[in-house]
Design brief:
Blueprint (H helix, E strand, L loop, with lengths): L1 H9 L17 H13 L4 E5 L3 H12 L4 E5 L4 H7 L8 E4 L6
Parallel strand pairs: 1-2, 2-3
Length: 102
């Protein structure tokens, strides 16, 4: 997902990319604490699709913390994702990188 990270930075967003700061010595509890700290210090969260379970959990936590959550469909059709799972309707915006106007 380096392409997504680079895209968001290019359009002016400060990003936290966990792959760049997780260390081999970190326990899963350490990683969870760091992830939550980054969520709490964020102004918004961008969930890129396709994503795994952990990313979806973090997006749900962010929404629960009152942060806006934007779903960026890097591949695929946003409508197809929304038809597959109604929970995407809870997020603040969903679209493709071509739709993104930051």
């Amino acid at each position: 997902m380096d392409e997504v990270h680079d895209f968001l930075q290019k359009i002016g967003y400060l990003t936290h990319d966990p792959r760049r700061w997780h260390k081999d010595k970190d326990t899963t509890e350490d990683i969870a604490r760091k992830d939550l700290a980054h969520l709490r210090s964020s102004d918004a969260v961008v969930l890129t699709l396709p994503s795994g379970n952990s990313s979806h959990i973090e997006a749900g936590l962010a929404k629960g913390l009152g942060l806006p959550v934007y779903v960026l469909c890097w591949t695929g059709n946003p409508e197809a994702y929304m038809e597959e799972d109604a929970m995407y309707h809870w997020f603040d915006w969903m679209g493709t990188k071509e739709d993104w106007n930051g």
